[in-house]
Amino acid sequence: MLRLPLSLLCCLLLIHCSDSGGPAPDAGVALELAQQRSSAVNNVRYELSLSVPGSVAEPVTGNVAIRFNLLDSIQPLVLDFRAPADHVLDVRLNGAAVDHRVTPDHIVIPPAVLSIGEQHVEVSFRSTDTALNRQAGFFYALFVPDRASTAFPVFEQPNIKARFSLTLEIPAQWQALSNGALLSRDETDTQRHVLKFAETLPISTYLMSFAAGELQIETAVRNGRELTLYHRETDQEKLSRNLSTIFDLHATALNWLEEYTDIAYPFGKFAFFAVPSFQFGGMEHPGAVWYRAESLFLDPTASRTQELGRASLIAHETAHMWFGDLVTMDWFNDVWMKEVFANFLAAKIAEPAFPDLNLDLRFFQAHHPAAYNVDRTAGTNAIRQELDNLNDAGSLYGAIIYQKAPIVLRQLEQLIGEEPLRNGLRQYLDANRFGNATWPDLISVLDPLTEQDLELWSKVWVTAAGRPRITVERVDGGVRLRQVAQDSTSSLLWNQPLVLAVGTTEGVEEYGVQLQEAEAFVAVPGEPVPTFVFAGADGIGYGRFVLDDSSRSALLESVGDLRSPVHRAVVWNSLWEELLDGFIPADAFVLAVLAGIERESDELVAQQLLGLLRSVFWQYLDDGERRAVGASVEAVLWDALGRVFSPGRKGAYFNALVDITITEAGIESLRRIWNGDEVLEGLPLQEQQFIALAEALVLRDPTNADAIIAAQAERITNPDRLARLNFIKPALGGNTAEHAGMLASFADVAVRRQESWVLDAMGALHHPIRNEASLSLLRESLDLTEEIQRTGDIFFPLNWLNATLGGYQSSEAAAIVRQYLDENPDLPERLKGKVLQAVDDLFRAASLQ
Ligand SMILES: [Zn+2]
Predict the structure, then answer these.
(1) What is the distance between the alpha carbons of residues 557 and 573, in angstroms, rounded to a whole number?
(2) pLDDT tens-digit profile of 352-405?
(3) CA 146 from chain center: how many Å?
């Protein structure tokens, strides 16, 4: 799209304005509107009052007074409010009723009534429930990236930061929290209480939040700072087992970040809410962080990786207080910046407490496989993407931002050096406190710190999509590396330091090389003759590292002999890529993985193997092949479970068994454990795991679905977990009419509000164990994707597609998806990308048959 210069645009609008009041602004928040508004409006303050009924059936109503300084009265004043027109009850300007128009997504006040200077707009309204996540007993607002305007009229864009004062009227028995501290609670009415919260510092609209309901409150003081946890956990033992660790992890992260950034925690109050079945891992509202409760309250069977995952999550959200909250992207095209710095710093914060884990290994496992899962597909995207309208911001998120960007940042740190990078970041944060900044702003701070051409580097790694395909060729005197773009239409060259591993009868040697051009040569002694070579051996290098024929067969045999766990992890990943490209048959890969599990001593590599086993078993073996290996797969897993001692390690094998068991005898063993007829020594199972067991049993034994679910429901003590099980029940059983009815019900946005439940149901509906019996539901599921993207939260569309497509491998299923793509040529580009990401395994599996 051609962008008009701003001055010309103003003239054009002015001409239109003089007749019918001007054209309605585009739906959503177009970039042009955002640019015009950010230069026309500043010093914004919202006084927001909301009345929230206890019953979900009754609407939330409210009033907002917006005070701001207007610098331009030529343009109409456009407020964002994404609600039906009859939800706007009254609009006043500077105390008097004002002429205004309600257009889709906006309230428009004409320029004729505007004047430069202090303005005061007041709107009475009825909210929509879109972003309020209202449930029985509680609700929470979640406005990222552009949903504040579904709840109240607002200037919805990250670079109009504002101070918010919130007043909430709620049922008398409820507790509430928001960004600001609670100032007062007016208890005059026995049914309803009115809570006032302190005004916030300047924050972006997506960071404003509040929640209320029947909540428990736990408070702790660490280093003189008060930390408050709100939650709904009913299991006291679970709570007390986790509580002090959760507070400690926050305190560690806060101290570390104050030291690293040289800026004290900017937002005063620090509270967080453990939300049951929260749709993300966490969300960084300053003073009111939301977490997925299940990620904070770990079971005693949690593995060290899960413990590190929790520490990383807490460090990630805390790091956002500086990267994202204090300094915010100017527009959502740079949303990746806040995510990459939060992840990058979370690794530095969380990892020192886990000296027993191999952190280089963990870095590789946490980033490369997930990034490759997207970057190898035809639907991949660049780290930094264009964004024309905020209503498409949700589609920017994904593994390229969360997993590839930290790899790229780690390479940037190698280029610049650890301390210069920290100093550059300090300078960047300090210069932009309570403001906004772009990626070019940061590059201009960092560029003088290195000899390297950061702009060129950024062009390939940050603004281009895809990964290099890197081959190794053994030649006289050494090894020649070659890179080409995996996407054959591109001529990009990726500049990166690479480590080449060369294996001989005497062991494995590493050689470093900077691969900058299309080729690089590494001198390697000719004696003893290498048995294999592989690149990317440090677990940082990024690309499709192709194995030559003899290295592939040698490593498939001997990967378990490699002494370095990082080498094993990198090679397992490369072997997986070789399978995906058709160089290793799936059954041979399964046998290699089983042999790997039998001898693997490292917990993290063992977990990687369990993940690969699940993927190849369900995605690349057909039913007959699964039955052929089922008994030996289960035997290897039970044996491995018996060999390890900690509940965390046993739990990993047990969870894999619950996922993968298909033999009669295996199902019977699981049934006895679920029934309590058998107890696994050293593995104390929790309610969550019994629920997962019950669900696995029902999928395998649908004729007894009702009895199993009724018995499980009887045993559940937590109301949120019980509601979830009741919700997904029709998807678990074997009644195909109920399956179709459930999918049809998801066409109603109200039914699919509880997104994590919907995803669990979709995963069951399309589970591979059904052997494609749900194929008739595939097209209908795909057809809902666009609607899901429009109304769902950020990760919902891709997760919906993954849950839909993960159960299929036949050419019939592939043909249905191709037809869907053919018949929807106008699918938004990024959504089409997500379909291509999610369908990649199905297309490969179908073509390998
Ligand atoms: Zn984040």
Answers:
(1) 15
(2) 888 888 889 989 999 999 999 999 999 999 999 999 999 988 888 899 999 999
(3) 16
Centre of ligand 1 to C-alpha 461, Å, is 20
Report how far ligand 1's centroid is from the alpha carbon of 76 (Å): 35
The residue whose two tokens read 């693997």 is 600
CB atoms within 10 A of CB 385: 21
The predicted-structure confidence for 566-586, as pLDDT tens digits, reads as follows 999 999 999 999 999 999 999
Cα of 828 vs centre of ligand 1, distance in Å, is: 25
- How far is ligand 1, taken at its centre, from the CA of residue 186, in Å? 35
Length of the chain: 849
Q: In sequence order, which ranges of 297-392 are alpha helices (DSSP H)?
A: 304-319, 335-350, 359-375
Phi, psi of 793 (to 5 degrees): -75, 170
Coil, strand, or helix at residue 173?
coil
How many angstroms separate the CA atoms of 427 and 416, rounded?
15
Distance 694 CA to ligand 1 centre (A): 33
Give me ligand 1 centre to Cα 335, in Å.
9
| 270-275 and 289-292 strand pairing | parallel
Q: Rounded to the nearest whole angstrom, what is the distance from the C-alpha of residue 409 to the centroid of ligand 1?
A: 15
pLDDT band at 21 (very low <50, low <70, confident <90, very high): low
| Six token digits for residue 68 | 């701001």
- Residue 819, number of CB atoms within 10 A of its CB: 12
DSSP class of 188? -
The closest alpha carbon to 612, from 660, 567, 644, belongs to 660
- Distance between CA atoms of residues 447 and 440, nearest Å: 10
User: Residue 781 Cα, ligand 1 centroid: separation in angstroms?
Assistant: 29
Residue 15 has pLDDT above 60, yes or no: no
In angstroms, what is the span from residue 302 Cα to ligand 1's centroid? 23
Element (H, E) at 636: helix 623-643
Measured in Å, residue 320 CA sits from the centre of ligand 1 at 7
Centroid of ligand 1 to alpha carbon of 413 (angstroms): 20
Largest distance between two CA atoms of the chain: 90
Are 321 and 620 a contacting pair, CB within 8 Å? Answer: no
DSSP string of 285-313, one letter each residue: -TT-EEEEHHHHS--TT--HHHHHHHHHH
Residue type, 177: L
Tell me the CA–centroid distance for residue 325 and ligand 1, in Å: 11
CB 228 within 8 A of CB 176: no
719 CA distance to ligand 1 middle (Å) = 29
User: Torsion angle, CA of 221/225/226/230, rounded to 10 degrees?
Assistant: -100
Are 213 and 139 in contact, with CB atoms under 8 Å apart?
A: yes
CA of 337 to the centre of ligand 1 (A): 10
Give, rounded to a whole angstrom, the gap between the first and last alpha carbons of the chain: 43
- Specify the DSSP element, H or E, that contains 229: strand 225-231
CA of residue 285 to ligand 1 center, whole Å: 10
Q: How far is the CA of 462 from the centre of ligand 1 (A)?
A: 18
Place of tokens 């007062």: 184
Helix/strand/coil percentages in the chain, nearest 5: 50, 20, 30
Strand order in the sheet with 270-275: 216-222, 225-231, 270-275, 289-292, 282-283
**What is the amino acid identity at position 127?**
S
- Distance of CA 323 from the midpoint of ligand 1 (Å): 9
Top-ranked range on mean pLDDT: pick from 173-177, 679-683, 787-791 = 173-177
Distance 282 CA to ligand 1 centre (A): 7
- Which residues contact residue 251 at a Cβ distance below 8 angstroms, ignoring those fewer than 6 apart? 222, 223, 225, 227
Bridge-based pairing state of the strands 519-523 and 117-126: unpaired
pTM of the model: 0.87
Ligand 1: centre distance to CA 425 (Å) = 18
* pLDDT at residue 19 greater than cutoff 50: no
